[in-house]
Amino acid sequence: MKTEIVHRPSFSLLRVELSQGEEITAEAGALVYMSPEIKVRTTTGGGVFSGLLRKLTTGESMFVNTYYTDSRGYLALAPSYPGDIVEIDVNGGLIVADTAYLASTGLELGVRFTGFRGVFMPGGMFWFHLSGIGKAWISTYGGIDVIELKPGERILVDNIHVAAFTEGMQFSLRSFGKLKSMLFGGEYILVEFVGPGRVYVQSRNLPSFAHVLARFIPSK
């Protein structure tokens, strides 16, 4: 399998070349184009229960598409919003926000309960869980900042900017400032991560941008 990320960093596109026996799984709606040799198999990704849970808790489709070929072919995948794509080598597990998952190969796709702390994070209480040994591609609104934490090292990230993190990392929620700053200062909840592990941070805030756009949309 050959992959290439083009049109970075604002309107990234993942190009994939497949040979016989190779396949890649992607979020429903991510396909941009494909050659006639490519075939598609639609599944719930991790089983019916995981698919239903993903649909009910994240709002995402309960289905994922797996692309393969009996010869050779190519396809292209892209997220539904402007931003970047990053390729991640997974050896164990990766926790991904529902809006950040784009595609994966060689990995099992499921749902992970992050606890009631997840209510204040972009993926909610249930996040995508990628397990095994393989590759994953995540997408973000804006650019991607990869933060490597050593054992015991800590970092605070605005909750909306968390795109993914290494499975097994400790994390907790912290309020930023007093109630007044939370109500009027534009900062809400911070997620404190403790290493070792990696945190993938998106540089832009999609809900804030939607709020800005709403001001220019006439009300009926």
Question: Outline of this structure?
Answer:
With 220 residues, this protein is mostly beta strands. It has helices spanning 48-58, 179-184, 206-214; strands spanning 2-6, 13-19, 23-27, 31-34, 38-43, 64-69, 72-77, 83-96, 101-113, 126-141, 144-149, 154-158, 162-166, 170-175, 189-194, 197-202.
What does this protein look like?
The longest helix is centred in the first third of the chain and has 11 residues, at 48-58. With 220 residues, the chain is mainly beta. The chain starts with a strand and ends in a 6-residue tail after the last helix. The chain is 12% helix and 53% strand. It has a 9-stranded antiparallel beta sheet, covered by helices on one side. The relative contact order is 0.16. Residues 46-52, 54-59, 116-120 and 179-186 have low confidence and may be disordered. The chain has one domain: Double-stranded beta-helix.
Level-2 CATH architecture: 4-Layer Sandwich
The fold-level CATH name is Double-stranded beta-helix
Number of helices: 3
Helix/strand-derived category reads mainly beta
The biggest sheet, with number of strands, parallel, antiparallel or mixed sense and barrel status, is: 9 strands, antiparallel
What gross morphology would you assign?
globular
Give the strand content: over 45%
Mean pLDDT: 84
Order of helices and strands: EEEEEHEEEEEEEEEHEEH
Going by CATH, the homologous superfamily would be Mitochondrial biogenesis AIM24
Helix content: 10-25%
CATH first level? Alpha Beta
Low-confidence stretches: 46-52, 54-59, 116-120, 179-186
Give the CA-CA distance, first to last residue. 50 Å
Query: How many structural units, i.e. domains?
Result: 1
How do the strands of the widest beta sheet line up side by side? 5-6-3-9-10-8-13-16-11
The rounded Rg comes to 18 Å
